[in-house]
Amino acid sequence: MSSRTLSNHDAAATITIIASHLSSREQARLDYVSRFLDNHPLKPENLSLDIRNVKQAEGVQIGYGKGHSNAANFDFFVPQQEVFFQADAPIAGLQIYSYKHVTENYYSVQRKTQINQELLIKNVFQFDLFETIFFHISRFEEHYPGERRTDRWDMLCAEEHLLVHHKLHQIPVVDQLVEVFFRVLGYPPNALSRQLIWTHDVDALRLFPNGLKTLRGFIRRILRREFSAFYRMFTRWLGQVINYSVDPYDTFEQLLDAAEDSPKCMFLMSGGALPLEGYYDIDSREALNLIHLAASRGYTIGLHPSYLTWKREDLMRKEKDRLSELTDTAIRTSRQHYLHFAFPDTLTVLEACGITHDFSLGYQDRIGFRCGTAYTYALYSFPDERESMVVETPLIIMDKALRDEAKRTRVSMTTLLNNFLDRQQTGQLCINVHNSSFDDIDWNSSEMRSILEQLHSWKESIC
Q1: Residue of 133, 97, 101 lying closest to 115 (CA atoms)
Q2: Does residue 165 lie within any of the structural domains?
Q3: Between the CA of residue 393 and those of 34, 88, 173, what are the distances in Å?
Q4: What is the model's pTM?
Q5: 189 domain residue, yes or no
Q6: pLDDT tens figures, 40-84
Q7: How far apart are CA 296 and CA 251, in angstroms?
Q8: Exposed site from 312, 354, 395, 408, fewest CB < 10 Å?
Q9: Helix boundaries (H) for 356-438
């Protein structure tokens, strides 16, 4: 099909998905995907999507149903898989298959065996794009993990994620599907510039917050037989005691970049009852000074809810209210400590507490696209079969995840990041850099600074 063009005067251009005989659950989930497509940054301006149960007189008509027998009645046809739009339980035997269009590969999630390897034959897509998109953005596999392994945080192991299992987690597979969907229909997708969203989780203000926690840190190094790290830590502590050096975690003046014009957010803890929490008091002078510094440099202040809040509305509300009171602002954004997110529990807690923007959905131990997309979108509430009131900005690159993956694959962090960025031609990347990642006890501060330079260079370079 020849490429269509849209102008400011062509405001009525519509793509209509014709779907009939759907159950209420199927309809709700298809509506959700349609809204996702309609709100996606790649969607051309002045173009809208609609879902009807009968064919319309104008616009591109996409049939959606069982089999291909009536595909000739529509401009395009998407075969209904009847899996993820119907299921409310784990699905066994899922596979990812590759389909080619022109020179690029696109990836389905299917239970059936692949028959053809072309994305489009005549006017028929060869797999259910809508269900595949739903699988990824709704986090279906995390809602219904079945008997698959969980990690020490009681979340689905990253290795059990379908994208990770197929080594596709560094590809924004959903965004690729959105791009080819509009392109095949004859509407060139929007040309997007590169954008970084800078975020910082403040787990601790200081490496040496007080005598007890400092002593625990020394003992932990000895018990782990980390003698070199113990020596470096002792040297830094001694230097601070005699006013020779500042605390290794006090990096905020350099980290919070006032000149950076990208969206940016800092997440602060205002609670926490576990041993690896409670490293600072949110109403201390030091924390209040940090809040003032961040606000003066254009940062949104968000909540970094403590570990146990993932299923505790009372704790989440208490921590949110405390931070709201101290900042004198309505706290609407958050990222879970340790990215500790349970489906659907955490989403329910966030909605109940008035959090409307979450930044938690990234990998703890590797970089990549956990949700298959780099862009902000609304999550899905499975208990209510509706679009959630919480929007998600997926976390793509976290410093600790980058370090873990570099250690596991035995390459440097800079090499790993460079290889990743080379594959990302355009789009949005949400970054999480901790203030604690520039000490030379557990980190290589020079390499971390090089990583920040790499990210800035990627954003500024022309594709």
Answers
A1: 97
A2: yes
A3: 19, 25, 16
A4: 0.94
A5: no
A6: 999 998 899 999 988 887 899 999 999 887 899 999 999 999 999
A7: 16
A8: 408
A9: 399-409, 413-423
